[in-house]
Amino acid sequence: PNGIEEPRNSDTDLPPECADLVRSATPYITAIGRFDTVKSFDTLIRSIHLLNDETTHLVLVGYGEQERYLKEVAGDSPARERIHFTGLVEEPGPIIAGARAVVITSHYEGFPNVLLEAISRGVPICGIDAPGGIKEIYRQGFNGFFTPLREPRELADTIDKTVHTEWDRVAIQD
Predict the structure, then answer these.
(1) Distance CA 163, CA 100 (A)
(2) Residues 6 or more apart from 63 whose CB is under 8 A from it?
(3) Rounded CA gap, 101 and 128, in Å?
(4) Do 160 and 51 form a contact (C-beta atoms < 8 A)?
(5) φ and ψ at 58, to 5 degrees?
(6) How far is CA 96 from CA 74, 92, 127, 174, in A?
(7) Is 100 left (phi over 0), alpha (psi -120 to 50) or beta?
(8) How far apart are CA 71 and CA 65, in angstroms?
(9) Residues 114-144: pLDDT tens digits?
(10) pLDDT tens-digit series, residues 1-59
(11) pTM confidence score
């Protein structure tokens, strides 16, 4: 009904680094993309220890020139035990499907495929509003929450609000 290929939810494609977490009942959020300054994943990593729910983990899927830097930022975080890097994942569908939310923190985003993949699975979206196609996809309070502010505290509050909202996942898919 939504024009997106039917999601594959098998967890056989998951890398060992996050397979146990994704298969468990542990709450997590995810962000997917190349590790580049434009994606601003360092802001996301810095927001994790500010979450009200100290059980929520972050699963970062991707690779790129900032990988070492992002791992250093994560290693310095008080929440370092809750931040996981998967590397490249050919089929991130199972990671998306199990997430409490998919987070986007880019400085700009042309056409955010990961948000469409999240919505196709009924997963709420959240993050930092930015120029580009994000505004075309999200509906504040219906399929997610976004903040205009690029600060870890504001992002953490937005993630908390998203994770703790009761979503109609069928309605998000339509």
Answers:
(1) 6
(2) 34, 35, 87, 88
(3) 13
(4) yes
(5) -120, 125
(6) 21, 6, 15, 17
(7) alpha
(8) 12
(9) 999 999 999 999 999 999 888 888 999 999 9
(10) 444 454 444 555 666 767 888 888 899 999 999 999 999 999 999 999 999 999 999 99
(11) 0.91
